[in-house]
Model the fold of this input.
Amino acid sequence: MAKTILPIGPYHPLQEEPEFFTLTLDGETVVDVDVRLGYNHRGIEKLSERKTFDQSTFLVERICGICSTSHPFAFCQAVEDVIPLEVPLRAKYIRTIIAEGERIHSHLLWLGLAGHFLGYNTVYMWAWKLREEILDAMEILSGNRNNYAMFKPGGVRRDIKPEDIPAVLKKVDSIVPTLEMLKNAVIDDPVLHARLKGVGILSRQKSIDYSALGPTSRASGVARDVRKDSPYGAYDQMEWTMIVTQNGDVFDKAVVRILETFESVNIMKYCLEHLPPGEIDAHITSLPPGEGIGHIEAPRGETFHYVLSDGTNRPARHKVRAPSFMNIPTFKATVVGQELSDATIILASVDPCYCCTERVAVRDTKGEKLFNGKELLRLSWAKTERIKKELGVP
Amino acid sequence: MSVTLNALLKSPWVFHLSTGSCNNCDIEVLDCLTPRFDIERFGMLLAGSIKHADVLLVTGSCNRQSAERLKRLYDQVPKPCLVVAIGECSQSRGMFIHSYNCPKPLDAIIPVDVYIPGCPPKPEAIIAGVVNLIQKVKGAA
Done:
C-alpha cells in the first residue's frame, strides 16, 4: 500500500476551490480516490446570521466569484419565499439577464480550463478572450466585471437603462461567431474524440445515485434543470431547449456546456429585447417569522438556500448548498479504473469550483512512484500528443 | 539595490496564492495572463511552483487552515521576494472580518509590499499595482 503522499501543487495556479483528493494507483490505473472538503471555510452561514437580509445578499455573493449571481439569486428567492412575495416582472427579466450572462462566462471559463488540461492552450486563450466580451457586457449592465451586486430581496438594485441595451446586445452577438468556431473546433476534432469519448463515464443510474446536478447530470441523460422543472425568473416566458446528452463521458459534458452557452445567449438576448416596463423592486419592509427556500440553476447545477426568519431583520438560520458539493463525489464513480493521465480532465469535467488551497495527492499501491500536479498535467498533455501522432494530426 | 533584486525586477515571475478567497481575485489574476491583458508583455509570468517565484500575489482572507500553510510557503520562496496583497479580503478581511475562521489579516502573517484594493480589483488595477511595486522598489534603492 501507499508509502508516500505527495501533494499536488499545494497552491496550484489554475484551480479555485479547496478540495483534497487522494488517488490510489495500481500502475497507471486509478483504483481508489478519496475526497475531503472544507479547506476554504470562512463561516459564511454563521456570518450571515449577524448581518441583515440586505447585507447578507452581498455576503452570499462572495461565496464564489464565478457563481456571484447564483447565490444572491437563490438567497433572495428564499427570503421572498418567507413572505411569500411575487417579484415585479421587470426585476425577473433583469435577474434572468444577469444569471445567463454569468452562465455564459462560467461555461467559457470552464472550456478554457478544460482546453488547458488537455494541452490545448489555444482553446484556453480563445475561450478566455471571448469571455472578456461578456464581462464587458456585464460591466455595462452592472458596473462591475464579477460581483454584480444587482440583487436584493424583493427585486433588483439597479435598473437597466434603455440606452445601454444596444451596446450589450452588440457585445453578446459578437461572441456567437467565435463560439460557433470553438464549438466546431471541439466537436469535430478527431483528437478530442479519441481523447475524451468513453473517458470518465458517469452512467445515468450513478448520476441519480450520487444526486449529480447541472451539466454533470444532464450529460448522463438525466433531464433535470431547475429552470425547466420549477421555473423562476423569466425562464417560463420564452422558448429554450434543455440540452441533454446520453453518454455521460467527458466529451458529452463538454458538449452540454458548449451548447448550453448558445441557449444562454438566446435567453439573454430575448430578455434584453423584451424587457417589460415597470417597477424593479417590491420594497420589502418587514419579514414575518417563517422559513423559505430558494433554488436556482447555477452554471454548475442547482444552488439551494434555506432561510429561517424569526421576524427580525436578520436570518435566524441560513443554509447554503452549492452544486459542487454534490458533483465532486461523482469523481469517485468516474475516475476509478481510468488512467492517471485522464484523471485531471475527468476531475475538471464536473467543473468543481476549486480554490488554490486545493490539494491532490497521488499514491501508488506499490508505493514507489510519486506524482505532483505539474506531472499530472504533463501526463495529460503527453496523452493528447500521443493520440495526435496516432491519428496523424499535426 | 542589490544585484538579485535588480535582476528580479526585470522579469518578475509571479506566483498566485489563494488563502481562502471567493475565486474572483484569482480569476482576475488569471485574466491578466489571457490575450486582452497579457502581462507576459512585461516579462511577468505565472510560475507553477513557489520555488520559481519572485513576486507573490496573495488573495483571500487567510483562514485558520491556510494561514499556517501561507507561512510555510512564504518560507519556501527564494529571497528576496515581494508580496502583493490583492483584493479587499487580503487587506482588511473585508466581509469576513467577523468570521470565527479568519483571525488575522494577511499583513500580520507575512510582510506585504503593495496593496491592491478592490472586490475584485480589475486586471488593469492588478497590472498597475505590480508596476507600482517595481517603481517602489527601484525608488527605494
Remarks:
- The radius of gyration of chain A is 21 Å.
- The first helix of chain A runs from residue 44 to 49.
- Chain A has two domains: 6-40+328-391, 44-325.
- Residues 6-40+328-391 of chain A form one domain.
